Amino acid sequence: MALKTFSRDQVAKLVIIDSKVYDLSKFAKVHPGGISVLLDSEIAGQDATERFYELHRTEVIEKYTRLQVGVVEGEEVAPSRVPGAISSVPYAEPTWLAPGGYHSPYYKEHHRRFQKVYRRFVEDVVVPDAQARESDGQAPSKHVVEEMCRLNILAMQIGPGKHLNGRVLMDGLISHEEFDPFIELIITQSAAKLHARGYNDGLGGGTIIGLPPVINFAQPALRDRVVEDALSGKRPICLAVTEPFAGSDVAGIRTRARKTEDGYWIVNGSKKWITTGTRAHWFTTACRTDDGEIVVLLIERGDGVETKPIKTLYSATAGTAFITFDNVRVPDSHRLGPGTPGLLIILTNFSHERWVLVAHNIARQRVIYEECMKWANQRKVFGKPLSSQAVVRQKLAAMIARFESCQSWLEAITFQMCRMSPEEQAKNLAGPIALLKMHATRESQKTAADAVQIFGGRGITKTGTSLRMHPSDESAHFVSSFGHGAVRRAFSPLSFDRLAAAPRV
Ligand SMILES: Cc1cc2nc3c(=O)[nH]c(=O)nc-3n(C[C@H](O)[C@H](O)[C@H](O)COP(=O)(O)OP(=O)(O)OC[C@H]3O[C@@H](n4cnc5c(N)ncnc54)[C@H](O)[C@@H]3O)c2cc1C
């Protein structure tokens, strides 16, 4: 075999990472610190694997495979991660997915079939866009929205119901009989893998909470039109309940709807913090009549409707809006559920919304833990990995106990959703779901605090090996930057049984 030859000068510009040889001078072109940082840092011509992973994620090296010039003779090169693969970090997957033969009463073959394909779709199609848009604050890209709609993912995120009629689910991967709230749970919890909280809300947030009142309470002709608009992604919808004056106290809303003699409503008022409101075409809007009654009107974007972005702690991709209605004319046929009190329409919507929030929250706790586990094994402090400190291992164990117990409760409730009618769910599950939301979000705040502790300064910065989180919003959901790669150490310092055998990721 003809071997490539190197001059001594050239060798000084090579570096070994994971038994692969890279050309440092090529790295220098993309490295923020330039060539001098790389040459001065005593890595040139050496095996820099350990130094590299002290400061970088695996994704960094995966991104630059084109800069690889060879491999070290006789050394085994670890295979690259297969896209969509189950994480090999212990407890990074719910137990039904974890390697080791766990049994579940809930998940069947079709759930596994769906999960496998769906995760691959998320990684291939959604994650790259989520990362780009989360940082530039733009709306989710058209090609992603179109694909989500074509596969009817957005429709499935609303759960079982008549809006699914006639729709092919995920290119026929599952049948209508197989679709159930556990498929919805898989989709919802997969969003944590985006590591992009604002993007996720921007992608489906408005539809998931804004469309169900239309599906359940609008007159058929209007319902079909709006469902098609929203689920095709062409004219999105949002839920406009909260106002500057009334948040928790929904019954205290002040947006006025005055009935005219020619069969219209004239709407005046403002709404605050409306997810995807900046881009929405339809607004499921809670209003108060002159009689003091609450009505829900479906308002179309047009004359008198103005939306402005509100800055939040997460990305502007969520499209969070301040909305003003200035003498907006709304046909009476756009009133939802004549005969059903407006407050009831709003309140029946909340349980599913809370279930979605809880599912997101618990999945994100798990993702945060995974980040912490990787970092604690990767980061050396005082000459030892962080994970060798008992206090750090105790925090990781506490995180696992928190999200695993929450997940078990969530799955128990989800199973009830599979068996109960919508009416039974409204009667029996509103309490447990609200309690779980209270419990999970409080538990997640403890995990957020522990995660910041484990990440140190990187716990509050945005770039590099950082962990971003904002435990301050209403459900204390938090976000992390896109996952670490390598677990740079064997898990031997950790005493949990499943850690010992974990391979590098
Ligand atoms: C990012 C984001 C997105 C949102 N998206 C939407 C959306 O799409 N559509 C929509 O309609 N709304 C949306 N909201 C609004 C959200 O639903 C409200 O923030 C929530 O209902 C709480 O209202 P508030 O913020 O006005 O708090 P307030 O009602 O002012 O309450 C302040 C605090 O007091 C507590 N509190 C209130 N009453 C009591 C009480 N009786 N006893 C003890 N404590 C109490 C509350 O829990 C809260 O912690 C969004 C908010 C955020 C932050």
Task: Describe what this molecule looks like in 3D.
The model is unreliable at 468-505 (pLDDT under 50). Among the domains are: 8-71, Roll (Flavocytochrome B2, Chain A, domain 1), CATH 3.10.120.10; 351-499, Butyryl-CoA Dehydrogenase, subunit A, domain 3. It is of the alpha+beta class and 505 residues long. Helix 2 (24-30) packs across helix 3 and helix 6 packs parallel to helix 9 (181-190). It has 16 helices and 12 strands. Strands 4, 5, 6, 7, 8, 9 and 10 form a 7-stranded mixed sheet that branches. The chain has a 3-stranded antiparallel sheet with strand order 1-2-3. Strands 11-12 form a two-stranded antiparallel sheet. Flavin-adenine dinucleotide (FAD) binds next to strand 4 and strand 6. Flavin-adenine dinucleotide binds at residues 238-242, 247-249, 273-275, 312, 320, 473-474. Pfam families: Acyl-CoA_dh_1 (PF00441), Acyl-CoA_dh_M (PF02770), Acyl-CoA_dh_N (PF02771), Cyt-b5 (PF00173).
Strand content: 5-15%
The CATH class name of one domain reads Mainly Alpha
Overall pLDDT level: 86
The rounded distance between the terminal residues' Cα atoms is: 32 Å
C-alpha geometry: elongated
Structural classification:
alpha+beta
The named CATH superfamily of one domain? Butyryl-CoA Dehydrogenase, subunit A, domain 3
Helix content: 40-55%
